[in-house]
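thread: overnight batch results

M.L. [08:02]
morning all. the overnight job finished for the chain we discussed friday. pasting input first so we're all looking at the same thing
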Amino acid sequence: MYMKKTFISLLFLAFCGGQAMGQSLTSGIDKANLDTSVKPGDDFFQYAVGGWLKSHPLDEEHPMNGSFVDLSELNNERILGIIQEYSSTPQPQGTLGQKIGSLYNLAMDSDRLNREGYEPLKPYLQRVASAKSKKALELLCAEYDLQGMDVMMFSVGCGADMRDADNNLVSIGQGGLGLPNRDYYFKDDAQTVKIREAYKTMMKNLFVMTGTDANAAQKKVDAVYAIEKRIASKSYDPVKLRDVDANYHKMRYEDLLTDFPGIDWGNFFLRLGFPAFEYVDVGQPEPVHEVEKIWAETSLDDLKAYVESRVISSATSALSDDFRAEAFKYSSIMMGTQQDRPRWKRAVSTVSGSLGEAVGKLYVEKYFPEANKQRMLELVRNLQVALSQRIDGLTWMSAATKAQAKDKLQNFIVKIGYPDKWKNYDALQIDEKLYTVTKIRVA
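M.L. [08:03]
and the structure it wrote out:
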């Protein structure tokens, strides 16, 4: 079986200064980027980019460097300019301009955030503390997940069926880890141990900062880490996650209820707002089964500690500066960065993440006009014609295979730059009084 429809997303980036047509062409290799003191046979990487690395040292803010970092910084500045057109003056209530400007201003209001501390988060933590049963806590997790808080011990989503691209498929898979992947829980090299300890220290400090005394906070950290390590013990490592066959387990919804009875799937999906569906893919069954056991075997208090830790960590970037600083201490050890991003960049990221297509529409109007998109569409159509002609000329391909190849070629769904139909944000409301809650709701 072949995929009839293939999605293509093309981003064309042009920089001025290239050779004009008709002029003589020069090599695309800048010898200044090489390190010719090294023999390519001894260390080709150093030979190929050693000069560039020397002339582009890392700054304190970024864990890496390269043309894409430069491009990201350029886009940040452009997006900031667009946002500030709406944030600097009052906008009509309910308009995209008002939503963009209000969200940015909320993110930039450090005085207010520092004054509030974790006050906006208290109602969410109180609901966790007030849960009377595991069932109630489980349904609360679904509700919080719908609001943008990453509190569940597994992942849930919906996307194209890998074996039937014409249809979408509900997916359930591994998740619930505070560290990047399973290996961080089991490797014992010095750097991994350092990262693990920094993670635990951050968790304890965040618990203390939200009203838990130090001894109780340490017990919560121990409980949370024990749960995460159990999930990690059954989770797939990064190599296995790349194995398509090993991560595809499509079944009927009825079989999900039978094979994974430890989770109240019916009420869970109802709380998440899913419509009725027939099939589901459990990408990694083993960690999901482990989650069933964890909910059955772990005390309610320890489960609450886990959910509480996820609620807090989901909101650190939207709380007062001391919460952000605590999270950055861990991040700096994990990523190697020495300086946090300035507030304006974090605010731009919040707006872009929450109102991405709204900002994108304004961006392309200014920097990628319709004529540019049409030019690229014409280029792709010309490529399709050329590829079709090459298929016709192949001697090793049968007529039937050529027909299938050309059918696939002609059914490409071409996506250039931005969508033909933009997302509608009319129903989105920005509460100008509660940034922390606003950020959770629209993330």
